[in-house]
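Q: Entry one of two.
A:
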Amino acid sequence: MPSASTEASTTVGAVPVVPRTPSVPTAREAADSRVAPGGPGYRRMSLALFLAGVATFALLYSTQALLPLISTDFGGTASAASWTVSAATGALALFVLPMSALSERFGRRAVMTASLAVAVTVGLLIPFAPSLGALVVLRAVQGAALAGVPASATAYLAEEVRPKALVTAIGLFVAGNSVGGMSGRIVTGWVAQEWGWRVALGVLGLIAVGCAVAFRLLLPAPRHFVAGSLRPAVLARTVRSHLGDPLLRRLYAIGALFMTVFGAVYTVIGYRLTDAPFSLPQGVIGSIFLVYLVGTVSASTAGKLVARLGRRGALYLAGGTTTAGLLVSLSGSLPLVLIGLVLITAGFFAGHAVASSAVSHTAKEGRAQASALYQSAYYVGSSAGSTLGAMAFHAGGWLGTVSMGLLAVLGVVAITVVGSRAARVQRRLATV
């Protein structure tokens, strides 16, 4: 119960102002040894996972802003070059569940460290790819290695952070994703304009090495991890349990659909801005990704959004914002296209942070597998969006890509409506 203030009130002009007294933790909160905002280790933990998110997204989407240059260098089409993105995200989706099982046995920090070590090593080899096929293979290996980070990060936070702070903590990790995606594209765009895409990817690889080293030095040792089993039967039973939960299934589908939109838009936008009437140089196109800063803000404030609107209300708002962005981006005016990208980015990152944190909150056991299934669906959506978005652009221009994105957002809204109705039915049954 909140403690009463014993301080005298003051006045500002004619308006009385009562000083705020910090709330006293309940007995349960005081006994909870997990980390809370402002507590020991919280800043180190947040910064470490923020840097892991930066490295993950910077590497995972490292070729996305460079697709027009890669197409020209290897003589490939937009659809062929898009496989340098789809192969990485598809491999991550395939390996995220096995990586989550390893994290249950060997620990979240160990798996994340090993994943980043392999991914940055491959990142230093990628600039030397002799052909488009070799580049796609190396990107697939890198994506598989990176699977250990999203497979373990949210489970680590769910175990080490108090429940009331979980949405905010996961939002900071997702914010790191947005910063990584933004900085990776900006760096590669400007470097590639001067020295080519190979040098750009090499520079990005070195930045990722720095993030990986800092992550390992900063991340506190887990205090609440309990090793699980690697037996396939146990893993299969846990996966069946999660897939049998209607709420988790809806959250998985929402994550996949949001990422389908995002993957399509950011895979194709470089081609659109390179073509007339915009005809922008590569460095300027890379700077367009500064709009990712909006995603950093929307993801890190997702906790406040849920507190005010509820989870489903926040998802409706995220879907509506994304829809507005897609429609605005149809304009032939560059400022309006940028506004559209801002809205799409804000809506996507807010929706992703809300859905991913809801998965960790809903799963009471096998959190790593629950999060892994979400990440798997999420990156399947990314892979599908990259490929289908490029195909839609080839067939119908930017209008084709936007139409595909609108269908995906419609799916998000429909699933959220189903969830709202299911919640109302449960409340009625509880009162009977």
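Q: Entry two of two.
A:
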Amino acid sequence: MTDTPTPPATAREWHLLSRPVGWPEPENFALVEVEVRTPGEGQVLVRNEYLSVDPYMRGRMSAAKSYVAPYELGKAMQGGAVGEVVASNAEGISVGDHVLHFLGWREYAVVDAKTAVKVDPQAAPLSAYLGVLGMTGLTAYAGLLRTASFKEGDSVFVSGAAGAVGSQVGQIAKLKGASRVIGSAGSDEKVKLLTEEYGFDAAFNYKNGPVSEQLRAAAPDGVDVYFDNVGGDHLEAAIGSLNRDGRIAVCGAISVYNNTEPAPGPRNLARLIQTRGRIEGFLVGDHYDLQPQFVQEVGAWVRSGELKYRETVVEGIENNLEAFLGVLRGDNTGKMIVKL
């Protein structure tokens, strides 16, 4: 086993101390110093360079039964990360290789080699493998093309459209021949970004008035596809504007993640009867078979500059929690990344 550069004896990682009720508070978490372990058989030691913080992590902080196990109290949290292998005890991965894995929220991680994916820092910036070419990108790709059955000529509405997933959904829809793409975002600056940089046909600030009214104005001919990152009033508005045989792909519901009471459901679900509309939830983990096709197609668009992406980069492991809270507040434009 090669072991260079020499890793430190200790490193820092974030632990969940208690389960947040409503909005997460700093006292629910602790930045802890731990011993850096030597990799066992079939493992590698990774010096993390970029960490991902994502809205779904809020769900893992609660004990409620969900599609993924909750974070354990008193232990390091997890999330997407990319970094350099500094010690290897596994075939096929060498010191100096860069890998994508899911032991984030820490400076150093001992990773089972079979769960690590080698990435090429020459083909794209390392941080891109956490966003535009990573799980968020695949979420956009699979949700739009498979779950929402997008087809050329569709009119598409995306909520949370300036976020990492939403901005990619809108651009993929345009590149695939959408007749009209509409986005909603939480600031006038983000609305401008959607239309001027990402090529959306129309966008609106949901804080400037009722979503249903703004959507009707932006999509007078209705929408065929709604990609839902927000839930709540956005979902109700989309059902109200849905065309015959319209499809709604439910990716997330960030507007209700910190609610302590159940949010009221859309009041107009009966409209799905007349439109023959369909609402379907999806998880990116069910669509990893699309990964090779996704990387090939989207990677080419990124290299050609046809698909643009933004990152909001926060520096330092000590700011990991603040970056996560920033995602819940909507502070980020594009993918929120922590650079170590």
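A: Comment on entry two: The first helix runs from residue 57 to 60. The mean pLDDT is 94.
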